[in-house]
Amino acid sequence: MVQQKVMAIIGLIFSIWLIGDDSFNVFSAIKQHEPSYRIFRSLLEVNLMLFCVAVSLSLWINSIGRDAVRCLFHQPLFGQEDHSLSVGAQYHRGQQEEEDDHKKDNGTLYRRDEVGGDEALLHDSELLDAHFDEDWEVDPAFKDRLMPMVSPLEVTHVALDMLLAILVTLFFFTLSSCRDEQQEEESLQSDTGKAFWDMYSQIAAPTFPLLLFLFFVYRAFFPWKDSRRTFWVVVSYTLNAPWFPVSFRDGFLGDVLTSSVRPLKDIAFTIFYILFGLKGWWSTQEYRNFDFLDNADTNVPAMERSWIVHTVVLPMCSASPLWWRFLQNLRQAYDERQRWPYLGNALKYFLAAQVAMFGVFHPERKQNIVWLACFVFATLYQSWWDVYMDWNLVDDRGHLRTRRLYQSKAFYWTIAWVNFVLRFCWTLSFLPLHYLNSAGILTGTLVGNFASHIVAPVIGIAEIIRRTLWGFIRFEWEVIKTGEGLNESDEKIFLEDDDTYSTTGKVELQPMVVRASRENSSAGMEPFATTRKRSKVLFFSDMSSMNSVQVTGELALYATIFCFFCLVVAAHRGTY
Questions:
Q1: What is the SS3 assignment for 108?
Q2: pTM as predicted
Q3: pLDDT digits (tens, 9 = 90+) for 515-542
Q4: pLDDT digit string (tens) for 453-492?
Q5: Which of 99, 148, 310, 326 is 20 to 30 A from 348, alpha carbon to alpha carbon?
Q6: How far is residue 56's CA from residue 492's CA, in Å, rounded to a whole number?
Q7: What span, in angstroms and rounded, lies between the C-alpha atoms of 7 and 26?
Q8: 263 phi/psi in degrees, rounded to 5
Q9: Cβ proximity of 30 and 169 under 8 Å
């Protein structure tokens, strides 16, 4: 079945390429109508994300184990089952309960699990083994409580079906947009026939992508069965941050949303076109040859120079994913009563938001040395966090960590370098393609129209690929920390180097769900100065002595600072 769909896709691509000649092709058709181009661009980027999901699931299942994927991504929904910060704690909750908060007794780390008002102190080894039996098999009682797992093949079929629908629509769109004069003269000799062809091309061509968009919007929600309902409920946990506890799945989804800004903007733009009655949707003449850019004429489609779209909607699409992820980190700091690493991770999204907002509201100053310095610093900080925090990829000597689930060292180093280079695309993806200048005229952000039709999709695709590569190692490291998937068959692919190097204490600095790993469980002797320095850091990070009101007040202050700086940038905007 997959082979048949692939062959159909190849045939459609070849057919689309055959339409027209050197003077007119599919790219010329897309350039004639910007709203249609937005639809095709956003849907193709979403389609790429589905293929990346299928590849990720296949890699994780084959290299790490199906149970690990289920335990980390298919936890019970909040309200149906206990939703805690730790899957292991969820199963083990109630077996050990005491009244004390964070304690250390003979080097044993205890953590608080606030679910339903109970405070359970969990030994780190019990945290690792909570839902595994003595043979490292997932406990059947726990497995029964997990949500059904989607297979890579199922995701691949969905992605192929979506791509087929997009290509069929693109075929008819290109065919309807074809305005070859020789064909018109041969088939339509009269002026009346030529006028009919012009009207058909103007109306039919933009209609096909619009119907495609409405179809996918409908299919995204209906029929409202278990799979779709579960998906949107999980998404709602991120959108409603910080009101829900943050699991690894929620944090991972939040990071994915920060990489989806480009398609989110295009989808939001199309939705507003529909909500405002498709006013200007069929104004193909103004879109042709980019006549809607740098044009003060009143014939420019109203939505293209809409103040609310360019000043409110599109900036919100840029800032909202960063805001949600920022709030998730504040919630984790509240639940764990620890400032580090959660506030350090929140700082990453705060810096990205400020750079993005300045780029959105002051695009004419994109060559300003201060903005460029902030842009570079934010990107370098994000790259550092990826390597040392999200992945724990290297130790203090710069060596690759000894515990790995993928067999090739080159796999890790390649992803690290590609991630570093493409990190700059992540920050650039928040900048708008067009903006309203102080005179209310729509202007391109970058030089020329090249940015709109070439750079924009390249940046979006590069960021989706980067996030996929990032997820390969992020998931692997979470599995190592929690002990997921380490049954007898998986143990032999758990690689260790001969030059084992202890990284005791680093596990406390991991983002998302902080858990001890087996790699870090064998504590070694540390120099007194190092221990003393680390004790000071832990003392500053600890908030266990503060009550809930104090912790909430401090975290609310950070959220206020985030909003304040964004509002200041917006209030002093250089756009219309």
A1: strand
A2: 0.79
A3: 333 333 333 334 434 434 444 455 578 8
A4: 677 788 889 999 999 999 999 999 999 988 743 443 344 3
A5: 310
A6: 21
A7: 20
A8: -65, -30
A9: no
d(CA 86, CA 113): 8
Burial 107-141 (b: 16+ CB within 10 A, else e): eebbbbbbbeeeebbbbbeebbbbbbeeebebeee
Mean pLDDT of the chain: 74
For the chain, how many residues are written? 576
DSSP state of 139: P
What stretch of H or E contains 438? none
- Give residue 105's identity as a one-letter amino acid code: D
Closest by CA to 113, choosing from 518, 513, 396, is 513
Alpha helix locations (H) across 19-98? Answer: 26-31, 34-63, 66-73, 87-92
- Give the residue carrying structure tokens 């020329």: 448
Round to whole Å and give the CA distance between 28 and 332: 49
Q: What are φ and ψ of residue 219, in 5° steps?
A: -70, -20
DSSP state of 244: S
Question: By CB neighbour count within 10 A (0-12 exposed, 13-18 middle, 19+ buried), where does 244 fall?
Answer: middle
Q: Residue 255 carries which side chain, given as an amino acid letter?
A: D
